[in-house]
Amino acid sequence: MTAFKEIQARHNRAQVTTLAWKLVAASHRCVLTDTQAIVVAAIADYEAAGVKPNQRQLIQATGIDRSTVSNVIRRLVEYDIVKRVRRKADDRAWDVALTDKGKAEAGKIDQIAKKVIDLTKGVNRTDELKIAA
Question: What pLDDT does residue 19 have?
Answer without folding.
Answer: 85
